[in-house]
Amino acid sequence: MHPELGNQEFRTTTALKTRLERAGLRPRVLAMGTGLICDIHPGTGAEPAGTAEGGVQESAPMLALRADIDALPIPDTKEVSYRSTVPGRAHACGHDVHTTVVLGAGLVLAELARAGALPRPVRLLFQPAEEVLPGGASDAVDCGVLEGVGSILAVHCDPRVDVGRIGLRAGPITSACDRLEVVLSGAGGHTARPHLTTDLVTAAAKLVTEAPALLSRRVDARSGLALTWGRIESGHASNVIPQRAELSGTLRCLDLPTWREAPDLVHAAIDEVATLHRAKCELTYVRGVPPVVNEPSATALLREAMTARAGAAAVETTEQSLGGEDFSWYLEHVPGAMARLGVRPAGERRVRDLHQGDFDADEGAITTGVELFTAAVLLRRS
Predict the structure, then answer these.
(1) Does CATH place domain 10-173+292-379 in 3.40.630.10?
(2) Full-model pTM
(3) What is the pLDDT of residues 107-137, one digit of tens each?
(4) What span, in angstroms and rounded, lies between the C-alpha atoms of 371 and 207?
(5) Whose CA is closest to 36, among 61, 60, 74, 10?
(6) Backbone angles phi, psi at 238, to 5 degrees
(7) Fewer Cβ in 10 A, N or C end of the chain?
C-alpha cells in the first residue's frame, strides 16, 4: 500500500530491516541508502556457527535469494482494500510479492538455522531500482552483495500462470533491453517549398520504419533483435516544416552476443537513414540490461524444489519473454536462475498484464514462493 520508486525505497527498506531484526537477524542497508542484505548462517542464524562476528565464514558459498523492492509511476486502478495509498504509484509488476516471498523464506530459514536444520548459508538480497535502467542490480553488485555468494535465485510474478504453479526455462528467459533517444535537426521552412528544407517530419517517419528494417537484415533473425519506437514528436503548425524532431524507443534482443554488438549496429543504421534525408542526427544510446540466462543446474534445483513441495505437475515450461530484468547483471558474475511465479487466481480467464494499473496477484503465490525458496535451500548440497 506504500509503493516507492527506484532509489527512493526508504520506508520499504526500514520496514524490512525492522522485521528481520525482530527475527534475531542482522540486516545491512546497502551503501546507496536503500535496499539491504541479510545473511543467515547454519547453527545461529545471525552469524556463522562457531565464530564471532567478523570471524571466519563457512567454506560453503552462500545461496542468495533476490527480491526487487521498487514500484512504478503508474496509478493503482484496483478496487481492493490493499490498493496503493500513494497517488500515481503502484506495485504494477509484483515487486511487493517478490519482496514478501524472500522475507517469508528468510524468516523460515532463520528458524531452521536456530534448530540446526539449515544446510548452508543463505543471503537475502532486497534490491532497489529494478525498474530504472540500467537497473539497481549493477549498483548492488558494486556494493559487494555477491561477495561469498556461489549462486543466486529469484522469482518474478507471471499473470499468465495459475497460482500454485511456476514456469521454468533453462537458458535465456528474458530479453535484453536498451533505450534510445534520437534528435534530428535541419533547416526548416514552408511546406510549400520542401525541396529547400530538410524535411524532418519525413526524415523522422522514414527513420521509424527503415532503421528497424535495416537492423533486421544485419543480424541473424534468430537473435530476436527488435527496435520499437514509443515516442515521436515534431512541429507545431501544419504549414511549417520544423527544425527539430525527437524520437524515443527501446531495443530488445534475445541473444547475448548480438546484444553486445547492438549499439554499433543501431548507430550505423540510424546514421544511414538520417544522412539519406540530409538530417543531422544525435543518438543517445542508454545501455540497459542483458538477457537473463538461467544456468541449467540452478534451473534444475528450482524444478526439484517445486516438485518436492507440489508435484511435477506444478512446474510448466515457460517461453522466453521480451521483457527486461536486471537480475541478469548478477548472472554475469555467478550462476543462477529465475522462475516465473504464478499469480493468476485458479479458474480466472482474464489475464492482467504487468505494468498495468489493474495488475493484481493472488496472495496464495506468496506461500508458493516461500515454499519454493525454502525447499531449494534445503536441497542444496554443493
Answers:
(1) yes
(2) 0.89
(3) 999 999 999 999 999 999 999 999 998 899 9
(4) 50
(5) 10
(6) -70, -20
(7) C
